[in-house]
Amino acid sequence: MCRNITTLRGLEPAATTEEIEAAARQYVRKVSGVQAASARTGPAFDEAVRTVARATAELLADLPPRQRPPPTLPPLRRPHRV
Predict the structure, then answer these.
(1) Which of 55, 31, 57, 56 is nearest to 44 (CA)?
(2) In the prediction, which pLDDT does 1 show?
(3) Does residue 81 surpass a pLDDT of 80?
(4) How big is the chain by its Cα radius of gyration, in Å?
(5) What are the angstrom distances between the C-alpha of 48 and each of 18, 73, 74?
(6) Taking a C-beta distance cutoff of 8 angstroms, is the pair 49, 28 a contact?
(7) pTM
(8) Which residues contact 41 (CB under 8 A, 6 or more apart)?
(9) Using one digit for the tens of pLDDT, what is the confidence trace for 15-47?
(10) 3-state secondary structure string, the chain?
């Protein structure tokens, strides 16, 4: 599950708030089955994204540095393909 979420630990410079939120959003989409939040699902979806992003930021801050950089860049750092 969530094979497309890239590793954020060990990025140089460190993962941004936007990268953490994008990973959280992708995770919540996957586990909830909600691809686009509606009026009915929006509040719960948005709260879940905030909670997961907060937990992710805390985890990244608490882990020791990686010895090697992650194998792939997160989507927000990849060059745009034409």
Answers:
(1) 31
(2) 47
(3) no
(4) 14
(5) 16, 24, 21
(6) yes
(7) 0.83
(8) 32, 34
(9) 999 999 999 999 999 999 998 889 999 999 999
(10) CCCCCCCCCCCCCCCCHHHHHHHHHHHHHHHHCCCCCCCCCHHHHHHHHHHHHHHHHHHHHHCCCCCCCCCCCCHHHCCCCC
